[in-house]
Write a structure and sequence with these properties.
By secondary structure, this protein is of the alpha+beta class. The protein contains three helices and three strands; from the N terminus they run αββαβα. A hairpin with a 5-residue loop joins strand 1 and strand 2. The site of zinc ion (ZN) has 8 residues, from loops.
């Protein structure tokens, strides 16, 4: 029981750590899953995904379309 809970928690943590966004304005990195595309430090939208799992990358690319 407890071992299963630990494994689930570990999976969630890994996903959160994987997705990191870099802010081009204040040159900081932050957790993509927590703040999305808006930088929590300077509220800039000039951010790009440094690394993340494929699911997160797909979501961000879809929302980042510039026509
Ligand atoms: Zn910023």
């Amino acid at each position: 029981m407890k071992r299963t809970e630990v494994m689930k928690a570990a999976e969630l943590i890994i996903e959160k750590i994987d997705a990191v966004t870099y802010c081009d304005d204040c040159k900081k990195e932050y957790a993509t899953v927590t703040y999305g595309r808006i930088c929590p430090y300077c509220k800039s939208e000039h951010t790009w995904l440094v690394r993340g799992n494929e699911f997160v990358i797909k979501e961000i690319e879809a929302a980042d379309e510039e026509c």
